[in-house]
Design a protein that fits this description.
22% of the residues are buried. The protein has a single domain, classed as START domain (Alpha-D-Glucose-1,6-Bisphosphate, Chain A, domain 4), CATH 3.30.530.20. It is α+β, with helices and mostly antiparallel strands and 151 residues long. The protein has a seven-stranded antiparallel β-sheet. The chain is built from three helices and seven strands; from the N terminus they run βααββββββα. Helix 1 crosses helix 2 and helix 2 packs across helix 3.
Length: 151
């Protein structure tokens, strides 16, 4: 990990097809990520939803899907740690989130990368990095638990 990039990985005891569905089916993604999404992920299209995580329910979640490479790569961009409802983050640079999947003898290796923090405004960069680093640690546990309980 550097100041520009968050990297997390976890081995999930499930086949790639199962992990792929948990990542890319908008309803399943919403279950473990704690966001209510109405629409599917479509490359080049924004998707919005209501955050369900306690304390953040007043916020709208928004990403733009970048890539869906079947059972290999799912990526999107977003504005990191955009939690002030009185701020318009739309003109700020975004970061890129990539979920890469690799088959292992016992399941699937999920590699997560969030990059582009060096483009975030200096007054937000450190806090956004710290909060997202902690958030991704929790989200990796969430997807692990979700996939284990929903085989």
């Amino acid at each position: 990990m550097t100041d520009n990039r968050i990297e997390k990985q976890i081995e999930l005891k499930a086949p790639i097809s199962r992990v792929w569905r948990a990542l890319t089916d908008h309803r399943e993604f919403g279950e473990w990520f704690r966001v209510k999404l109405e629409d599917p992920f479509v490359p080049g299209q924004p998707i919005r939803g209501k955050i369900l995580h306690p304390g953040y329910e007043h916020l709208q979640w928004e990403i733009v899907t970048q890539k869906l490479e079947l059972e290999h790569l799912f990526s999107f961009t977003w504005h990191p740690y955009a939690i002030n409802p009185n701020v318009d983050y739309s003109q700020e640079p975004s970061t890129l989130i990539e979920f890469n999947l690799e088959k292992t003898p016992s399941g699937t290796l999920l590699l997560l990368t969030e990059s582009g923090f060096d483009n975030i405004l200096a007054n937000r960069r450190a806090e956004a990095f710290l909060r997202n680093d902690n958030g991704w640690t929790q989200q990796m546990k969430n997807i692990e638990r979700y996939v284990a309980q929903n085989q």
